[in-house]
Amino acid sequence: MQLSIDLTGREVLVTGSEHAARQAVRRYEAAGAVVYRLSTPQGAAHDGPLPERPFLVAAVEDGQPGWDSLLGRCRDTGIPVAAEPAAGAPGHVTLVGGGPGTTELLTVAAVKALRDADVVFYDRLAPYQELPSLTSAELVDVGKKPGHHKVSQGDIEKLMVESALAGNNVVRLKGGDPYVFGRGGEEVAACVAAGVKVRVISGVTSAISVPAAAGIPVTHREVSHMFTVVSGHAPLTEKEHQHLAGLGGTIVVLMGIGTLHQLAAGLRRAGMRADMPMAVVERGYRPGQRTTIADLGTVTSAAAGCSNPAVLVIGEVVRVAEANRGHAEAAADLDRLAASLLGS
Ligand code: SAH
Question: What is the pTM of this model?
Answer without folding.
Answer: 0.82
